[in-house]
Design a protein that fits this description.
Length: 100
């Protein structure tokens, strides 16, 4: 069995320490890459959700505009029918009362 000298042991420790530091740096780099990828994925999800909400908002705004238009149309028709109905009742009433 061979005995190692102090110098050989120190060199071996230095090599092992260098290899460990390199492995730590590599692992840290991989962890950083994974963290960045995770953030990019979350951002992509948020962008898709934002676009979905924007589309939904635009659809609701169009629906409100359409509802307002139909509301105005219904109001005008209601007023018109009211005036025509009032005229019809007035004319009929005048004819009935005046006809006696």
């Amino acid at each position: 069995m061979r005995l190692f000298t102090d110098l050989e042991i120190d060199l071996l420790i230095d090599e092992i320490s260098e290899a460990a530091l390199e492995a730590i740096k590599q692992a840290a780099g991989e962890a950083a890459k994974a963290a960045v990828l995770s953030m990019v994925e979350r951002e992509a999800i948020l962008l898709r959700e934002t676009q979905r909400l924007r589309n939904e908002t635009e659809a609701l705004a169009q629906e409100v505009t359409d509802t307002r238009r139909s509301g105005r149309k219904n109001t005008v028709l209601g007023v018109l029918f009211g005036i025509l109905g009032g005229l019809a009742v007035g004319v009929c009433g005048t004819l009935i009362i005046g006809g006696r």
